[in-house]
Amino acid sequence: MPTVQPREALQKLTGLQWLICIVASMGFAFDSYELLMLPLIIGPALGELLGAAPGTPIYGQWAGLLFWIPAIAGGIFGLLGGYLTDRLGRRRVLVWSILLYGFSAFAAGFAPTIGWLLFLRCCTFVGVCVEFVAAVAWLSELFPDPKRREAVVGYTQAFSSLGGLMVTGAYAIAVTYADRLPEIGGGHEAWRYTLISGVIPAIPLMIIRPFLPESPAWQEKKRAGTLKRPSLGVLFQPQFFRTTIVTTVMMACVFGAAFGAIQQVPRMVPGLAELRGLPRPAQQQIVSLVQSFQEIGGLVGRFLLAYLAIRIVSRRRLVRTFQVPGLILLPLVFAFAGTSSLELLKWGIFLVGLLTIAQMSFWGNYLPRVYPTHLRGTGESFAANVGGRMIGTSAAYVTTQLVASMPGATPAAQLAYASALVGTTVYLVGFAASFWLPEPKQEALPD
Protein backbone atom coordinates (compact mmCIF):
# COMPACT_ATOMS: atom_id res chain seq x y z
CA MET A 1 0.00 0.00 0.00
CA PRO A 2 1.42 3.45 -0.89
CA THR A 3 2.41 5.66 1.98
CA VAL A 4 2.43 9.00 0.18
CA GLN A 5 -0.68 10.92 -0.82
CA PRO A 6 -0.75 12.78 -4.16
CA ARG A 7 -0.72 16.53 -3.80
CA GLU A 8 -3.74 18.32 -5.27
CA ALA A 9 -4.31 22.03 -5.80
CA LEU A 10 -6.74 23.73 -3.44
CA GLN A 11 -8.48 27.07 -3.72
CA LYS A 12 -6.86 29.98 -1.92
CA LEU A 13 -8.06 30.82 1.57
CA THR A 14 -10.68 33.54 1.84
CA GLY A 15 -10.22 36.61 4.05
CA LEU A 16 -12.42 35.10 6.74
CA GLN A 17 -10.50 31.83 6.61
CA TRP A 18 -7.24 33.73 7.03
CA LEU A 19 -8.72 35.49 10.07
CA ILE A 20 -9.70 32.11 11.52
CA CYS A 21 -6.18 30.78 10.97
CA ILE A 22 -4.65 33.90 12.54
CA VAL A 23 -6.83 33.59 15.66
CA ALA A 24 -6.05 29.89 15.99
CA SER A 25 -2.33 30.48 15.45
CA MET A 26 -2.35 33.22 18.07
CA GLY A 27 -4.17 30.95 20.50
CA PHE A 28 -1.73 28.07 19.98
CA ALA A 29 1.26 30.42 20.21
CA PHE A 30 0.19 31.85 23.54
CA ASP A 31 -0.71 28.39 24.86
CA SER A 32 3.00 27.62 24.77
CA TYR A 33 3.92 31.16 25.75
CA GLU A 34 1.98 30.84 29.01
CA LEU A 35 3.16 27.32 29.84
CA LEU A 36 6.81 27.79 28.96
CA MET A 37 7.14 30.80 31.21
CA LEU A 38 7.47 28.53 34.21
CA PRO A 39 10.84 26.90 33.42
CA LEU A 40 12.26 30.38 32.85
CA ILE A 41 10.82 32.18 35.88
CA ILE A 42 10.58 29.44 38.49
CA GLY A 43 14.08 29.93 39.92
CA PRO A 44 13.85 33.72 40.38
CA ALA A 45 10.24 33.45 41.60
CA LEU A 46 11.07 30.90 44.29
CA GLY A 47 14.08 32.95 45.25
CA GLU A 48 11.99 36.08 45.80
CA LEU A 49 8.84 34.56 47.31
CA LEU A 50 10.45 31.84 49.44
CA GLY A 51 14.11 32.76 49.66
CA ALA A 52 14.81 29.21 48.43
CA ALA A 53 17.98 28.26 46.55
CA PRO A 54 18.34 25.42 43.99
CA GLY A 55 19.22 22.13 45.64
CA THR A 56 17.37 22.83 48.89
CA PRO A 57 14.42 20.61 49.89
CA ILE A 58 11.90 23.47 49.90
CA TYR A 59 13.02 24.54 46.43
CA GLY A 60 12.59 21.03 45.03
CA GLN A 61 9.20 20.63 46.71
CA TRP A 62 7.75 23.88 45.37
CA ALA A 63 9.32 23.44 41.95
CA GLY A 64 7.52 20.10 41.65
CA LEU A 65 4.25 21.57 42.91
CA LEU A 66 4.36 24.50 40.49
CA PHE A 67 4.88 22.15 37.57
CA TRP A 68 2.35 19.52 38.65
CA ILE A 69 -0.57 21.10 40.53
CA PRO A 70 -1.52 23.54 37.74
CA ALA A 71 -1.39 20.64 35.31
CA ILE A 72 -3.76 18.62 37.49
CA ALA A 73 -6.15 21.59 37.70
CA GLY A 74 -5.87 22.07 33.96
CA GLY A 75 -6.59 18.41 33.34
CA ILE A 76 -9.69 18.33 35.53
CA PHE A 77 -11.22 21.57 34.31
CA GLY A 78 -9.92 21.00 30.80
CA LEU A 79 -11.92 17.79 30.70
CA LEU A 80 -14.99 19.81 31.67
CA GLY A 81 -14.04 22.31 28.96
CA GLY A 82 -14.03 19.56 26.34
CA TYR A 83 -17.54 18.55 27.41
CA LEU A 84 -18.68 22.19 27.25
CA THR A 85 -17.12 22.49 23.78
CA ASP A 86 -19.51 19.78 22.60
CA ARG A 87 -22.45 21.28 24.50
CA LEU A 88 -22.04 25.05 24.05
CA GLY A 89 -20.07 25.36 20.83
CA ARG A 90 -16.45 25.54 19.75
CA ARG A 91 -16.10 29.31 19.25
CA ARG A 92 -17.64 30.37 22.57
CA VAL A 93 -15.45 28.08 24.65
CA LEU A 94 -12.36 28.98 22.61
CA VAL A 95 -12.78 32.72 23.22
CA TRP A 96 -13.42 32.44 26.96
CA SER A 97 -10.49 30.08 27.45
CA ILE A 98 -8.07 32.56 25.85
CA LEU A 99 -9.43 35.39 28.00
CA LEU A 100 -9.00 33.23 31.11
CA TYR A 101 -5.38 32.38 30.54
CA GLY A 102 -4.48 35.89 29.39
CA PHE A 103 -5.85 37.74 32.40
CA SER A 104 -4.76 35.14 34.97
CA ALA A 105 -1.20 35.33 33.65
CA PHE A 106 -1.33 39.10 33.98
CA ALA A 107 -2.51 38.82 37.59
CA ALA A 108 0.21 36.28 38.39
CA GLY A 109 2.80 38.97 37.75
CA PHE A 110 1.54 40.72 40.89
CA ALA A 111 1.40 37.58 43.09
CA PRO A 112 2.37 38.56 46.67
CA THR A 113 2.96 35.01 47.90
CA ILE A 114 3.84 31.59 46.54
CA GLY A 115 0.27 30.45 47.24
CA TRP A 116 -1.19 33.15 45.00
CA LEU A 117 1.31 32.36 42.29
CA LEU A 118 0.30 28.69 42.41
CA PHE A 119 -3.42 29.53 42.27
CA LEU A 120 -3.07 31.91 39.33
CA ARG A 121 -0.86 29.45 37.46
CA CYS A 122 -3.68 26.92 37.91
CA CYS A 123 -6.12 29.36 36.28
CA THR A 124 -3.72 29.92 33.40
CA PHE A 125 -3.27 26.20 32.89
CA VAL A 126 -7.04 25.65 32.86
CA GLY A 127 -7.43 28.22 30.08
CA VAL A 128 -4.65 26.65 28.04
CA CYS A 129 -6.02 23.12 28.41
CA VAL A 130 -9.49 24.16 27.29
CA GLU A 131 -8.20 26.30 24.41
CA PHE A 132 -6.32 23.46 22.74
CA VAL A 133 -9.34 21.18 22.61
CA ALA A 134 -11.78 23.89 21.47
CA ALA A 135 -9.38 25.20 18.82
CA VAL A 136 -8.62 21.79 17.29
CA ALA A 137 -12.32 20.85 17.07
CA TRP A 138 -13.19 24.31 15.67
CA LEU A 139 -10.50 24.28 12.99
CA SER A 140 -11.13 20.68 11.94
CA GLU A 141 -14.83 21.32 11.35
CA LEU A 142 -14.34 24.68 9.59
CA PHE A 143 -12.14 23.07 6.92
CA PRO A 144 -13.91 19.90 5.72
CA ASP A 145 -11.53 19.11 2.83
CA PRO A 146 -9.15 16.46 4.24
CA LYS A 147 -5.91 17.86 2.80
CA ARG A 148 -6.78 21.45 3.66
CA ARG A 149 -7.83 20.37 7.16
CA GLU A 150 -4.59 18.47 7.80
CA ALA A 151 -2.53 21.41 6.55
CA VAL A 152 -4.46 24.08 8.49
CA VAL A 153 -4.48 22.16 11.78
CA GLY A 154 -0.82 21.19 11.37
CA TYR A 155 0.56 24.58 10.39
CA THR A 156 -1.48 26.61 12.90
CA GLN A 157 -0.25 24.30 15.67
CA ALA A 158 3.29 25.04 14.55
CA PHE A 159 2.83 28.50 16.03
CA SER A 160 2.87 26.84 19.46
CA SER A 161 6.62 26.70 19.14
CA LEU A 162 6.73 30.30 17.99
CA GLY A 163 5.12 31.03 21.34
CA GLY A 164 8.08 29.38 23.02
CA LEU A 165 10.47 31.63 21.12
CA MET A 166 8.36 34.64 22.00
CA VAL A 167 8.43 33.95 25.73
CA THR A 168 12.15 33.27 25.59
CA GLY A 169 12.61 36.65 23.91
CA ALA A 170 10.25 38.34 26.36
CA TYR A 171 12.19 36.95 29.31
CA ALA A 172 15.50 38.02 27.80
CA ILE A 173 14.12 41.55 27.33
CA ALA A 174 12.74 41.59 30.87
CA VAL A 175 16.08 40.47 32.29
CA THR A 176 17.94 43.13 30.31
CA TYR A 177 15.59 46.08 30.93
CA ALA A 178 13.96 45.20 34.26
CA ASP A 179 15.46 48.20 36.03
CA ARG A 180 13.75 50.57 33.58
CA LEU A 181 10.25 49.10 34.05
CA PRO A 182 7.73 50.19 36.73
CA GLU A 183 8.35 48.80 40.18
CA ILE A 184 6.23 45.82 41.30
CA GLY A 185 6.13 44.63 44.91
CA GLY A 186 9.06 46.81 45.84
CA GLY A 187 11.38 45.51 43.12
CA HIS A 188 12.13 45.09 39.42
CA GLU A 189 12.04 41.32 39.05
CA ALA A 190 12.11 40.09 35.44
CA TRP A 191 9.90 37.09 36.19
CA ARG A 192 6.99 39.38 37.09
CA TYR A 193 7.17 41.37 33.86
CA THR A 194 7.34 38.12 31.87
CA LEU A 195 4.14 36.86 33.49
CA ILE A 196 2.33 40.16 32.89
CA SER A 197 3.10 39.97 29.16
CA GLY A 198 0.79 36.93 28.97
CA VAL A 199 -2.24 39.25 28.69
CA ILE A 200 -1.33 40.16 25.10
CA PRO A 201 -3.61 37.65 23.27
CA ALA A 202 -6.71 38.72 25.19
CA ILE A 203 -6.58 42.29 23.85
CA PRO A 204 -7.03 41.71 20.08
CA LEU A 205 -9.39 38.81 20.71
CA MET A 206 -11.93 41.10 22.37
CA ILE A 207 -11.96 43.17 19.16
CA ILE A 208 -12.24 40.43 16.53
CA ARG A 209 -14.52 38.02 18.40
CA PRO A 210 -17.74 39.16 16.60
CA PHE A 211 -16.24 38.21 13.23
CA LEU A 212 -15.47 34.59 14.14
CA PRO A 213 -17.94 31.94 12.87
CA GLU A 214 -19.15 28.91 14.76
CA SER A 215 -18.36 25.44 13.44
CA PRO A 216 -20.94 24.70 10.68
CA ALA A 217 -20.99 20.97 11.46
CA TRP A 218 -21.75 21.56 15.14
CA GLN A 219 -24.16 24.45 14.53
CA GLU A 220 -26.26 22.63 11.95
CA LYS A 221 -26.75 19.64 14.23
CA LYS A 222 -27.55 21.93 17.16
CA ARG A 223 -30.20 23.85 15.21
CA ALA A 224 -31.73 20.67 13.79
CA GLY A 225 -31.93 19.08 17.23
CA THR A 226 -29.86 16.10 16.09
CA LEU A 227 -26.75 16.85 18.17
CA LYS A 228 -26.32 13.97 20.59
CA ARG A 229 -25.38 14.66 24.19
CA PRO A 230 -21.66 14.04 24.87
CA SER A 231 -20.75 11.51 27.51
CA LEU A 232 -17.51 10.35 29.08
CA GLY A 233 -19.00 6.88 29.42
CA VAL A 234 -19.29 6.52 25.65
CA LEU A 235 -15.52 6.83 25.35
CA PHE A 236 -15.21 3.46 27.07
CA GLN A 237 -17.77 1.62 24.98
CA PRO A 238 -16.34 -1.01 22.60
CA GLN A 239 -16.21 1.22 19.50
CA PHE A 240 -14.04 3.84 21.24
CA PHE A 241 -12.35 1.93 24.08
CA ARG A 242 -9.08 1.10 22.35
CA THR A 243 -8.80 4.59 20.84
CA THR A 244 -9.41 6.24 24.21
CA ILE A 245 -6.86 4.14 26.12
CA VAL A 246 -4.06 4.21 23.54
CA THR A 247 -4.33 7.93 22.78
CA THR A 248 -4.41 8.72 26.49
CA VAL A 249 -1.28 6.66 27.16
CA MET A 250 0.61 8.07 24.19
CA MET A 251 -0.28 11.67 24.99
CA ALA A 252 0.82 11.08 28.58
CA CYS A 253 4.17 9.88 27.27
CA VAL A 254 4.87 12.82 24.98
CA PHE A 255 3.91 15.29 27.70
CA GLY A 256 5.99 13.25 30.13
CA ALA A 257 9.05 13.73 27.92
CA ALA A 258 8.36 17.45 27.58
CA PHE A 259 7.73 18.16 31.27
CA GLY A 260 9.90 15.49 32.85
CA ALA A 261 12.95 16.23 30.71
CA ILE A 262 12.87 19.12 28.25
CA GLN A 263 11.36 21.71 30.58
CA GLN A 264 14.02 20.95 33.18
CA VAL A 265 16.83 22.22 30.94
CA PRO A 266 16.74 25.88 32.13
CA ARG A 267 17.58 24.64 35.63
CA MET A 268 20.49 22.52 34.33
CA VAL A 269 22.24 25.23 32.33
CA PRO A 270 23.54 27.35 35.25
CA GLY A 271 25.20 24.24 36.70
CA LEU A 272 27.43 23.64 33.67
CA ALA A 273 31.12 24.24 34.33
CA GLU A 274 31.32 26.98 31.67
CA LEU A 275 28.74 29.11 33.51
CA ARG A 276 29.89 28.80 37.10
CA GLY A 277 31.10 32.08 38.48
CA LEU A 278 29.15 34.19 35.98
CA PRO A 279 26.79 36.81 37.47
CA ARG A 280 23.13 35.82 37.61
CA PRO A 281 21.94 38.10 34.76
CA ALA A 282 24.60 36.64 32.45
CA GLN A 283 23.60 33.10 33.41
CA GLN A 284 19.94 33.83 32.75
CA GLN A 285 20.74 35.29 29.33
CA ILE A 286 22.49 32.03 28.42
CA VAL A 287 19.50 30.10 29.79
CA SER A 288 17.31 32.08 27.37
CA LEU A 289 19.70 31.26 24.52
CA VAL A 290 19.55 27.51 25.22
CA GLN A 291 15.77 27.71 25.56
CA SER A 292 15.60 29.38 22.16
CA PHE A 293 17.45 26.43 20.59
CA GLN A 294 14.85 24.06 22.03
CA GLU A 295 11.99 26.25 20.83
CA ILE A 296 13.41 26.59 17.32
CA GLY A 297 13.74 22.81 17.24
CA GLY A 298 10.12 22.46 18.31
CA LEU A 299 9.04 24.95 15.63
CA VAL A 300 10.91 23.02 12.94
CA GLY A 301 9.40 19.78 14.25
CA ARG A 302 5.84 21.11 14.11
CA PHE A 303 6.28 22.37 10.54
CA LEU A 304 7.84 19.06 9.56
CA LEU A 305 4.88 17.20 11.09
CA ALA A 306 2.44 19.45 9.18
CA TYR A 307 4.32 18.75 5.95
CA LEU A 308 4.40 14.99 6.48
CA ALA A 309 0.80 14.73 7.78
CA ILE A 310 -0.63 15.26 4.27
CA ARG A 311 1.90 12.92 2.66
CA ILE A 312 2.21 9.87 4.92
CA VAL A 313 -1.01 7.87 5.00
CA SER A 314 -0.29 5.64 8.00
CA ARG A 315 -0.68 7.49 11.29
CA ARG A 316 1.45 4.89 13.07
CA ARG A 317 4.29 5.39 10.63
CA LEU A 318 3.95 9.15 10.94
CA VAL A 319 4.32 9.23 14.72
CA ARG A 320 7.17 6.68 14.71
CA THR A 321 9.10 8.93 12.33
CA PHE A 322 9.67 11.10 15.41
CA GLN A 323 9.55 8.50 18.19
CA VAL A 324 12.42 6.26 17.06
CA PRO A 325 15.19 8.87 16.69
CA GLY A 326 13.93 10.62 19.84
CA LEU A 327 14.28 7.41 21.81
CA ILE A 328 17.95 7.25 20.79
CA LEU A 329 18.85 10.91 21.20
CA LEU A 330 17.12 11.90 24.45
CA PRO A 331 19.23 9.83 26.88
CA LEU A 332 22.44 10.90 25.14
CA VAL A 333 21.57 14.60 25.25
CA PHE A 334 20.55 14.67 28.91
CA ALA A 335 22.98 12.18 30.45
CA PHE A 336 26.03 13.36 28.50
CA ALA A 337 25.61 16.84 26.98
CA GLY A 338 23.48 18.05 29.89
CA THR A 339 26.31 17.41 32.33
CA SER A 340 29.36 18.36 30.29
CA SER A 341 28.99 20.82 27.41
CA LEU A 342 26.94 23.94 26.75
CA GLU A 343 27.53 23.71 22.99
CA LEU A 344 26.44 20.05 22.78
CA LEU A 345 23.44 20.75 24.99
CA LYS A 346 22.27 23.59 22.73
CA TRP A 347 22.27 21.47 19.58
CA GLY A 348 21.11 18.33 21.37
CA ILE A 349 18.08 20.06 22.86
CA PHE A 350 17.31 21.47 19.41
CA LEU A 351 16.98 17.91 18.06
CA VAL A 352 15.14 16.51 21.09
CA GLY A 353 12.75 19.47 20.98
CA LEU A 354 12.14 18.88 17.26
CA LEU A 355 11.31 15.20 17.73
CA THR A 356 9.21 15.58 20.89
CA ILE A 357 7.21 18.71 20.15
CA ALA A 358 6.31 17.43 16.68
CA GLN A 359 4.46 14.59 18.41
CA MET A 360 2.27 17.13 20.21
CA SER A 361 1.13 18.47 16.83
CA PHE A 362 0.44 14.91 15.71
CA TRP A 363 -2.46 14.62 18.16
CA GLY A 364 -4.16 17.77 16.90
CA ASN A 365 -4.30 16.18 13.45
CA TYR A 366 -5.16 12.67 14.62
CA LEU A 367 -7.86 13.04 17.30
CA PRO A 368 -10.57 14.84 15.25
CA ARG A 369 -10.51 11.92 12.79
CA VAL A 370 -11.44 9.26 15.33
CA TYR A 371 -14.39 10.88 17.18
CA PRO A 372 -17.81 12.00 15.82
CA THR A 373 -19.08 15.61 16.03
CA HIS A 374 -20.99 15.27 19.31
CA LEU A 375 -18.05 13.55 21.01
CA ARG A 376 -15.10 15.31 19.37
CA GLY A 377 -14.35 17.83 22.11
CA THR A 378 -14.92 15.30 24.88
CA GLY A 379 -12.74 12.63 23.26
CA GLU A 380 -9.94 15.05 22.46
CA SER A 381 -10.14 16.48 25.96
CA PHE A 382 -9.85 13.11 27.67
CA ALA A 383 -6.67 12.20 25.79
CA ALA A 384 -5.14 15.68 26.04
CA ASN A 385 -6.13 16.54 29.60
CA VAL A 386 -6.29 13.25 31.48
CA GLY A 387 -3.43 11.74 29.50
CA GLY A 388 -1.28 14.72 28.63
CA ARG A 389 -1.95 17.27 31.34
CA MET A 390 -2.82 15.19 34.41
CA ILE A 391 -0.69 12.08 33.93
CA GLY A 392 2.02 13.25 31.55
CA THR A 393 2.96 16.44 33.35
CA SER A 394 3.34 14.54 36.62
CA ALA A 395 6.66 13.43 35.12
CA ALA A 396 8.01 16.85 36.19
CA TYR A 397 7.21 16.01 39.80
CA VAL A 398 8.76 12.54 39.42
CA THR A 399 11.93 14.07 37.99
CA THR A 400 12.30 16.58 40.82
CA GLN A 401 11.80 13.83 43.41
CA LEU A 402 14.42 11.58 41.79
CA VAL A 403 17.12 14.24 41.79
CA ALA A 404 18.44 13.45 45.27
CA SER A 405 18.86 9.76 44.34
CA MET A 406 20.85 10.42 41.15
CA PRO A 407 24.63 10.41 40.74
CA GLY A 408 26.36 13.69 39.94
CA ALA A 409 28.62 16.23 41.60
CA THR A 410 26.10 19.09 41.47
CA PRO A 411 22.31 19.47 41.77
CA ALA A 412 22.22 20.43 38.06
CA ALA A 413 24.01 17.21 37.05
CA GLN A 414 21.69 15.14 39.23
CA LEU A 415 18.72 16.86 37.56
CA ALA A 416 20.14 16.00 34.13
CA TYR A 417 20.43 12.29 35.02
CA ALA A 418 16.92 12.23 36.49
CA SER A 419 15.57 13.87 33.34
CA ALA A 420 17.37 11.31 31.17
CA LEU A 421 15.83 8.44 33.13
CA VAL A 422 12.27 9.80 33.10
CA GLY A 423 12.40 10.97 29.48
CA THR A 424 13.75 7.69 28.16
CA THR A 425 11.17 5.67 30.10
CA VAL A 426 8.19 7.56 28.74
CA TYR A 427 9.59 7.44 25.21
CA LEU A 428 9.81 3.64 25.47
CA VAL A 429 6.23 3.34 26.73
CA GLY A 430 4.92 5.66 23.99
CA PHE A 431 6.69 3.71 21.26
CA ALA A 432 5.32 0.42 22.56
CA ALA A 433 1.78 1.84 22.70
CA SER A 434 2.00 3.00 19.06
CA PHE A 435 1.63 -0.62 17.90
CA TRP A 436 -2.00 -0.52 19.16
CA LEU A 437 -2.84 2.95 17.78
CA PRO A 438 -5.98 2.61 15.60
CA GLU A 439 -5.71 3.90 12.04
CA PRO A 440 -8.55 6.32 11.11
CA LYS A 441 -11.14 4.59 8.91
CA GLN A 442 -11.53 7.50 6.47
CA GLU A 443 -10.04 10.87 5.56
CA ALA A 444 -13.28 12.77 6.18
CA LEU A 445 -14.26 13.56 9.77
CA PRO A 446 -16.74 11.10 11.34
CA ASP A 447 -20.23 12.56 11.48
What kind of sheet is the major sheet?
none
Q: What is the CATH topology?
A: Growth Hormone, Chain: A
Sketch the topology as an H/E string, one letter per element.
HHHHHHHHHHHHHHHHHH
> How many structural domains in the coordinates?
1
User: What is the CATH architecture term?
Assistant: Up-down Bundle
Instruction: Indicate the low-confidence ranges by residue numbers.
Output: 1-9
Output mean pLDDT: 87
Can you say what the CATH homologous superfamily is?
MFS general substrate transporter like domains
What is the structural class?
mainly alpha
Give the overall shape: globular
Number of beta-strand segments:
0
β content, as a range?
under 5%
Radius of gyration: 21 Å
The CATH class, by name, is: Mainly Alpha
Please report the number of helical segments.
Answer: 18
Terminal CA distance reads 26 Å
